[in-house]
Specification:
This protein is an all-alpha fold and 158 residues long.
Length: 158
Amino acid sequence: MATPSLKIIDALRKTANQLENGHRYEWGNMGSCNCGNLAQTVTTFSRAEIQKYALEKRGDWSEQLVEYCPTSGFPMDLIIEKMIDFGFSKQDLRHLEWLSDTEILSQLEDNKHLNRNLKSDTILYMKTWATLLENKLIDAIVLPSFEIKPTDLILEVV
């Protein structure tokens, strides 16, 4: 799973909010599916550009992630590279496309089953993922100890 960071959390929440507010969602389109929407948020590529570049190689996001090669020269590999450089792993992106990360799914009430091609389930998955990462980030904060000793409480009378 992606290392918890504010920029990852922000990208997930921003993408979920855009989808909630009417951003185009089409699971069968590589530029406006689960990964495609996140790619629009974290890269400079548009939905149309992502779709165009995806068609230069075979397969969906999952297959292209398996065949990802940073030196291939394919624009789609550049998009994937930018997402990896941003902080997501190939496994994160595969899970996102299929809404399948068990750690994220375990956070849902009643172990709700998510459908990979439903906009509302994609939004729920991204928000849940962001909250999970946020909680991990908070849990990692170590505060200094401000232990007060009984002798520190004695007031000096003048």
